[in-house]
Design a protein that fits this description.
Elements (H helix, E strand, L loop, with lengths): L2 H13 L4 H18 L3 H25 L2 H27 L2
């Protein structure tokens, strides 16, 4: 599995999250996976940036593909995920 495949799998998992605890759990697993994979900090930053972009696409497409209630719930989950991703990005920036 490539890193891009893994990222898309994570995005899919995030769309199934119900609350902030679920989101944090998924992203926590991702953080551990990336740390253990021994990829460079630059590659980790790119991973988080690409995931952030993927979530932008999902949030733009979801209102057209789902009921309003489901899309609203997904929108909340995506906003939580984006905040968490931003925090991961800040942590990586702080390590430099």
């Amino acid at each position: 599995m490539t890193l891009d495949d893994y990222r898309l799998q994570v995005v899919h998992r995030l769309t199934g999250c119900r609350d902030s605890a679920d989101v944090r759990g998924v992203l926590g697993e991702v953080d551990i996976f990336l740390a253990q994979s021994q990829i460079s900090e630059r590659a980790r930053r790119k991973f988080w940036e690409a995931m952030n972009s993927d979530l932008d696409v999902v949030s733009q497409e979801s209102p057209h593909l789902m009921t309003k209630q489901t899309a609203t719930g997904l929108s909340v989950v995506i906003r939580i995920a984006k905040v968490e991703i931003f925090q991961h990005h800040l942590t990586l920036e702080g390590d430099n």
